[in-house]
Amino acid sequence: MRTMRRTWSLYLGVAALALAASCQARSRGAEPGDGAADTKGFFVRPEGPHPQACAADADCVSGPGVNPEEGCCDTGVHNSVYSRAYIAWRAAWMHDHCGGVECPLLPPPAPLAACFTDGRCVGGRCKNTCP
């Protein structure tokens, strides 16, 4: 439960910062929900933005791995790169849908190279900076 509270605090903080960035990204042309065929392995809903849509490097941030089947539980460790708009959308979705969900504690993942959580926008999608 304590881990879930920390995760909520992190998401709500990131969401507040990401809302402004998501509005800017949309005004620059990043469209939510486009490219549904390349969302396999991500938690997505029709009303949500594409998890990796971007228009600039600043649109890409690190985030935790998410169970693609249910969305409430994640690794709690930032091990991937997502769009700011997706992080904000998921935080709001979790607030509305995950109140009573108890997420299992997971073992810590193996340490990652920093490039796995360093985001950049390539061809309209957030990618890590690993070679």
Q: How are the elements arranged and paired?
A:
Blueprint (H helix, E strand, L loop, with lengths): L1 H26 L32 E7 L7 E10 H14 L21 E4 L2 E4 L3
Antiparallel strand pairs: 1-2, 3-4
Helix pairs in contact: 1-2
Rg is: 14 Å
- Spatial shape: globular
- Major beta sheet summary: 2 strands, antiparallel
Strand order of the largest sheet: 1-2
The N- to C-terminal Cα distance equals 37 Å
Account of the protein in words:
By secondary structure, the protein is an alpha+beta fold. It has helices at 2-27, 84-97, and strands at 60-66, 74-83, 119-122, 125-128. It is globular and about 40 Å long. The chain has one domain. Helix 1 packs across helix 2 (84-97). Residues 1-36 have low confidence and may be disordered.
Outline:
This protein has one domain (2-104, 114-128). Helix 1 (2-27) packs across helix 2.
Which properties best describe this structure?
disordered N terminus; alpha+beta; two-stranded antiparallel ribbon; 31% helix; 131 residues
